[in-house]
Amino acid sequence: MECVRDYAMYAAVFGLFSFSWFGWAQEKPRPGWRNYLGMAAGAALLVCLVGVYLSVTNWHAPSALSDRTAFQRYLLLVSVEFALALAGALVLLKKRRKDEIAPWIALIVGLHFFGLKNVFADAGLSVLAVLLIVVALVSRPIARKLQVASSAITGIGVGTALFAFAILVLIRFMSV
Predict the structure, then answer these.
(1) What kind and span of H or E run contains 4?
(2) DSSP 8-state symbol, 26
(3) Residue 5 and residue 7: Cα distance in Å, rounded?
(4) Staple 16 to which of 48, 86, 160, 165, CB 3.0 to 4.6 Å?
(5) Cβ–Cβ contacts within 10 Å for residue 75, how many?
(6) Which tens digits make up the pLDDT trace of 113-159?
(7) What's the predicted TM-score (pTM) here?
(8) C-alpha dist (Å) from residue 24 to 7, 33, 53, 142, 168
(9) Burial of 60 from C-beta contacts in 10 A (0-12 / 13-18 / 19+)
(10) Rounded to the nearest 10 degrees, how much is the dihedral formed by the CA atoms of 137, 104, 69, 118?
(11) pLDDT (tens digit per residue) in 7-26
């Protein structure tokens, strides 16, 4: 990936969604986890804000999404992701399987990173995709064993992966 502005946007977006997942993890974690989840969410929000600042100050720089075809592919992938996540969540709610919604959404988000890898020409997104898919697959059994909501485990796993990638792209940004 050659577009420095995209690194900044990654940091903003990954930071924001890391913040969101750490928030969702607070649905029913172990009581001793709440302070750590709050601190993790706060750190993710700070990284998001740094990413926003860097994005705004580098808005003139090129982006992979400056290419019309890449932008259209991006919009298609994100639209399909939202539609699948929503449809699956509604089906799970109807079947009274609310505890499976967070892993379902993590799975769909993970899968969409495989498509975004091509849009941004960034193989690192494949690693992120695999991490999120693994979290989606292991979160329910781990949650049952720990007697917490699956959203607690999913949120911690996805939040941590996104936070780590947000930090990595900030390092990439600084090295360009």
Answers:
(1) helix 4-24
(2) T
(3) 5
(4) 48
(5) 12
(6) 999 999 999 999 999 999 999 999 999 999 999 999 999 999 999 99
(7) 0.94
(8) 25, 13, 25, 16, 23
(9) exposed
(10) -10
(11) 999 999 999 999 999 999 99
Output the CA–CA distances (angstroms, integers) from residue 1 to 5, 7, 26, 47, 84, in the order listed: 10, 9, 35, 20, 28
Write out pLDDT tens, residues 49-93.
999 999 999 999 999 999 999 999 999 999 999 999 999 999 999
Length of the chain: 176
* CB neighbourhood size of 15 (10 A): 27
- What letter represents residue 65's amino acid? L
Phi and psi torsions of 14, nearest 5° = -65, -40
Rg (alpha carbons) of the chain, rounded to whole number:
16
DSSP codes joined into one string, 92-146: HHHTT-GGGHHHHHHHHHHHHHHHHHHHHT-THHHHHHHHHHHHHHHHHHHHHHH
Which region holds residue 96: left if phi is over 0, alpha if psi is between -120 and 50, else beta?
Answer: left
